[in-house]
C-alpha cells in the first residue's frame, strides 16, 4: 500500500493509490499525509473491496443503514464496479424502506427504481411523507397521490387499489427528453420535467 485513508470513526485503511485511480474518482494528493473521508469504516471496508481483484462482498448480510450509506458512497466516488450491486440491494429494500429508496433513486436518477419505490409509498399518510422528503419531492408526491387515488378514507389513508396506468406528462418548459425517459417512469423529475402515471380511481368502501 502507498496511501492511508481514515474513516469518520477514525479507522485507518492502507490502500493502493493505483487502485483508487483505476476504480473510482477518489483522487488523493501526492502527500504522504493521511486522507480523511466522511464515510464510516463499515462503508469504506465494503467499498474498497470493489477496487481489488477479489470476490465481491455478500451485501445480503449487511444492515440497511450501511447499505444506504454505501450506495451513496459508490455514487459519490463513481465506483462503477459497485453501482449495479448497490442498485439491486436498494431495490430489494423497497418493501421495508420505500421512502429511503425513493430518495436515493431521485438523487441518482434511476427511473425504474423511482417507479417501484414511488408506487410503494402511495398509501402513506401525507404528514409522515412531508416530514421525510424535501418540499419539491413532497409536492410531486401529492400530485401523484391525488391523481392516482383522489378519495381519502376516514382513516386518513389513500386507497390502496392499483389499476392499469394512464400516462400523464407535466411539462413546465420544453426540455428535451433524455433517452432514459422512454421507459415512462411513474414519477420522475429531470430538470423541469415531471413524468408520472395516474391510475383509474375506485372509491374506498
TrEMBL record:
InterPro entries: SKP1/BTB/POZ_sf (IPR011333). It comes from the Eukaryota. This is BTB domain-containing protein. It comes from Dendrothele bispora (strain CBS 962.96).
Amino acid at each position: 500500500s502507498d496511501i492511508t485513508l481514515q474513516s469518520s470513526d477514525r479507522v485507518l485503511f492502507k490502500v493502493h493509490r493505483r487502485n483508487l485511480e483505476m476504480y473510482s474518482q477518489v483522487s488523493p494528493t501526492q502527500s504522504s499525509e493521511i486522507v480523511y473521508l466522511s464515510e464510516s469504516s463499515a462503508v469504506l471496508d465494503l467499498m474498497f473491496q470493489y477496487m481489488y481483484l477479489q470476490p465481491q462482498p455478500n451485501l445480503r448480510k449487511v444492515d440497511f443503514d450501511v447499505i444506504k450509506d454505501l450506495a451513496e458512497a459508490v455514487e459519490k466516488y463513481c465506483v462503477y464496479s459497485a453501482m449495479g450491486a448497490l442498485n439491486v440491494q436498494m431495490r430489494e429494500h423497497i418493501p421495508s424502506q420505500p421512502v429511503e429508496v425513493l430518495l436515493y433513486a431521485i438523487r441518482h436518477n434511476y427511473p425504474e427504481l423511482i417507479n417501484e419505490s414511488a408506487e410503494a409509498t402511495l398509501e402513506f399518510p401525507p404528514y409522515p411523507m412531508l416530514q421525510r422528503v424535501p418540499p419539491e419531492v413532497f409536492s410531486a408526491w401529492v400530485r401523484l397521490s391525488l391523481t392516482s387515488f383522489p378519495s381519502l378514507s376516514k382513516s386518513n389513508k389513500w386507497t390502496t387499489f392499483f389499476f392499469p396506468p394512464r400516462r400523464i406528462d407535466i411539462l413546465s418548459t420544453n426540455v428535451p427528453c433524455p433517452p432514459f425517459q422512454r421507459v415512462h417512469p411513474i414519477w420522475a423529475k429531470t430538470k423541469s420535467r415531471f413524468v408520472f402515471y395516474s391510475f383509474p380511481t375506485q372509491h374506498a368502501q
